[in-house]
């Protein structure tokens, strides 16, 4: 029986009072979920003596499903569409979580642009820390020794290492093939296409990326800068997806964003500990590392 057929059949047995149907359905859903937990409690308590555990769980799951279908019916929602949307969401978050990145997509957004407008597929950037006016600042340099952007301070009352936050922009470049901030610094804006230059590489996209970095940095700061952490909060990732909706980077999954964040902060921790170093971005393998 598929979801569409089940939803139709469940509706035929819905005799809930019309004036309280939705409330009763929601309360019933909560109650049946509680009954399901009770069965599990009995199994933990009685072990193999609770012989009816599989059968009882089957029955309780069926009751949960009936109330789910009834809530959907009462709200005129399609259970099949709900299931499909849920699978898409969970696939976006968890698909391939145990797999190593096997190489970035061969069709990066800037592949069709002239070579001088493409982000470097391999990039080495040196982070140099100096003291300036009694404040620690970081300067980025490319392989030729040329400077990239301005000296960066923590811009905080407390020294918290934000001066190394460009590690996150580099992680976006390496893992996602996206960074309007670095496109500007590296002079790789796609000026051959006016719309792309304005929308993907322009000021608004730059502000969005900077906002994402600041947002993630604050989260990481409250979680030991992600040291020893292998999973990032789902709500954080969902907010990032919302911020980038409509941009070319929206093609990447929540899991891809998680990889960028975790790799970026692994490099950030190393830079902060060693007071600088050389960062290597490898877009072919979707990795960022510190030499």
Keyword list:
single chain, 291 residues, alpha+beta, Helix Hairpins, 2 domains, five-stranded antiparallel beta sheet, elongated
What does this protein structure show overall?
The protein folds into 2 domains: 3-94, MazG-like (Helix Hairpins); 115-290, no CATH class. Helices cover 51% and strands 12% of the residues. It has 10 helices and 5 strands; from the N terminus they run ααααβββααααααββ. It has helices spanning 3-12, 21-46, 53-74, 79-94, 166-176, 180-185, 194-199, 203-221, 234-243, 254-274, and strands at residues 122-132, 135-141, 147-152, 276-282, 287-290. The chain has a 5-stranded antiparallel sheet. The longest helix has 26 residues, at 21-46. The N and C termini lie far apart (57 Å). Residues 97-103 have low confidence and may be disordered.
